Automatic annotation (TrEMBL):
Entry-linked SUPFAM superfamilies: Radical SAM enzymes
Protein name in the entry: Radical SAM core domain-containing protein
Record-level Gene Ontology MF annotations: 4 iron, 4 sulfur cluster binding; catalytic activity; metal ion binding
Taxonomic superkingdom: Bacteria
Amino acid sequence: MSNNKLYKVYSEYLKEKYKEKVYRIPINLPVTCPNRDGCVAKDGCSFCSEKAAGFEALSNKISVKDQLEKNIDYIGPRYKAKKYIAYFQNFTNTYLPPAVFEAYLKEAIREDVVEISVSTRPDSLDERYLDILKMIKDAQDIEITIELGLQSINHKTLKSINRGHTLAEFIEAANLVKSYGFELVVHMILNIPYDDEEDIIEGAKILSALKVDAVKLHSLYLIKNTPMADLVESGKLEICSMDDYIKRTSLFLAYLSPDIVIHRLLGRAPKEDTIFCNYSTSWWKLKDMIEAYMIANDLYQGCYFDYLGGKAVRHL
């Protein structure tokens, strides 16, 4: 069974939408996070380092225009690529003055960029930033996607990992993004030590109820010398087993609406920087194991999606 029958694959979605393969180009801005600089908390998420998630991106000292040009000049000839997504990836990309945010976005506008994707936090988004994005979308006829980091729906977990925001703030931000007609992608980590299987299933249900457009799943990776890495190395915190993670991911997909696109099942990080990443297994092998588990247990995305729409009165 192909994976696009097990879940809604992002690459296939892009091909259908843009009629050809589209490549995402990471953009690295000189920004930080409000839970890192003291605005809402200090030191950032307990699993996140000063490098954050942008290890594949170019230096943020390079202009947005030049980052795009360098990457496109490299990718285009090698893969015969013609269309790209400018992905503002690292840290909190709306955590800067609106006028500065707008200037960065305008640097990303070029004929072969068909979409701008902005990654941010639920507590770092309001109408000012979305109005700017709407103006650019209408003026340039370009698609806009907002990626919100949630990671967990459990309020105790969010506090334990020092996220600095609540589930309520995420729901507000998600509804606001949807009201502008932008695509909404949500990031989730399915093996945070404080979460259990029920949290994972409830996460799928909440995202389905909110009608998010896509989900980006991560297996937790721990950068050396981060607070959570120190707790795990000292034996004070335990990550679920690989078998449990495979089951969690499969159940998350089973309870998730079949309409939601799956950007990816796993993340990656440089091995030399981490104490834990994908259970010391290559990401594609772990992906194959998740898919094999789903097939063996007759699971597929949305097979348990029967809990919305007033299920208690369906028989009346």
